[in-house]
């Protein structure tokens, strides 16, 4: 059976995606204690042990919203490390083992909006978007989903009524669409309640 790796394994989106993939993939869904995406040696060792992977979904995320002058430097850098550098580490080490692997990155609509107090999150997710396109230009099968507010622990950072948020299962549906060939490498699927488009 093909193997799928989902980072940020304890998160609601990762759990929903793993259920979507369970019938077609042997799913590896490590939490951050087992796979720290910011630790290159940890990433290398984990992928060497459990890979090669046919599908890699970079779902690990971090957010510490603060006004710039009130922000904590270590937490700001942590957001960049988890949200962007971790995507690079996992993608690179996964592709070193299997250049045909499909890479799906979980970005955010925040990549396209400079939300107040969200500097580290917005710029790291914007980096995920451009990195996804760069990988596709290098010939790899990379895609990104940029969801709006989703009913997860991060939901508390959005001032939106519940009927304007996606469910984690909605992200899993888009994963299925990507694997079904609905999109082409380099596509960013911008997805919020009532709106889905390719960027």
From TrEMBL:
Cross-referenced InterPro entries: NAD(P)-bd_dom_sf (IPR036291), Sc_DH/Rdtase_CS (IPR020904), SDR_fam (IPR002347)
PROSITE patterns found in the cross-reference section: ADH_SHORT
Gene3D superfamilies, per the entry: NAD(P)-binding Rossmann-like Domain
Leader peptide range in chain numbering: none
A matching Pfam family: adh_short
GO molecular function: oxidoreductase activity, acting on the CH-OH group of donors, NAD or NADP as acceptor
Entries under SUPFAM superfamilies matching the protein: NAD(P)-binding Rossmann-fold domains
Protein family according to the UniProt entry: Belongs to the short-chain dehydrogenases/reductases (SDR) family.
This protein's name: 3-oxoacyl-[acyl-carrier protein] reductase
Organism taxonomic ancestry: Bacteria, Pseudomonadati, Bacteroidota, Flavobacteriia, Flavobacteriales
